[in-house]
Automatic annotation (TrEMBL):
PROSITE patterns xref list: HTH_ARAC_FAMILY_1, HTH_ARAC_FAMILY_2
Keywords tagged on the record: DNA-binding, Transcription, Transcription regulation
PANTHER family, per the entry: RIGHT ORIGIN-BINDING PROTEIN
Signal peptide start and end residues: none
UniProt-listed Gene3D superfamilies: Homeodomain-like, Regulatory factor, effector binding domain
UniProt-listed SMART domains: AraC_E_bind, HTH_ARAC
Species annotation: Lucifera butyrica
Xref: Pfam families: GyrI-like, HTH_18
InterPro entries xrefs: AraC_E-bd, GyrI-like, Homeodomain-like_sf, HTH_AraC, HTH_AraC-typ_CS, MarA-like, Reg_factor_effector_dom_sf, Tscrpt_reg_AraC-type_HTH
All copies of domain HTH araC/xylS-type, residue ranges: 8-106
Protein name, entry field: Transcription regulator hth arac- type
Highest taxon listed in the record's lineage: Bacteria
GO molecular function, one term: DNA-binding transcription factor activity
Amino acid sequence: MSYIDDICKAIDYIETNFDCDIFLDDIASSVNLSKFHFLRIFSMLTGNTPTEYIRRRKLTMAASNLINTRDPIISIALSSGYMSQESFSRAFKNMYGLTPNTYRRNKVHFANLDAIRFTKDILDIKVTPKETKPIVIKKDGFSLLGIQYHVKNKDREIPKLWNRLALRIGEIENIASNNYYGLQIYSGKLKKTEEITYIASVEVKSAGTIPPGMVSIEIPPSKYAVYTIPSIIDDIPSVMKKIYTVWLPETGLTPTSNYDFELFTESFIPNNPNSEYHFYIPVTGECKHDQSNSC
């Protein structure tokens, strides 16, 4: 049995015992591993400690209960393992960007911030990401409008930015399609501060009236290497790093600009292993393995 099978069994144990106190010794025993060895393997495969996984999974269920039930917030707090509504509210706002009261009032579930239940399919993707070869296309210029933020994304600021846009999407005029664009602009600060400019946006036919706190930007015509990537939100930074440091250099193509962007179609489902998004990099050169515009 592989370690992935062991971790799947451990997750089954955790998920079926959320109503009880869950101890690391008991989880490790359920898969016949020492506590130290289990902790190391779990963290290596999932990117989370068991304690962090449990905490975030309980907050995910709390988010669902806030929208789908009328349970008092204090009851949801206690069932999530918090001794007071205040401590629960702090933890919830840190994860979802809103207080439990506001989250319930908005009635919009922020699935992109959920802690997903790890399955074998998801762990397989995380442990051995499948190398993806880009297609190379030419794309006309287009206009974007959205919310801009300077981020390091250390505390999931980018998913939270998308949720801010979702709550204000009705303010944008002249939307051209149901697609969403995550535009990333890199500056000389990147190496020193790890900050990028990120714009959560939609394509518009024309900028029209720009709502307060939003920006518009024109993307020029370009040749792009386009990668198709599984929709596991927490894995996006590591996959992009793999593209830029390994997969793209192998093609013979060279990035030409200080930006790239993610394209999310209306079929995109966050954290669904069967869902995908597209990552566009402006490039120059000829692909070493170009066959029918696919590297």
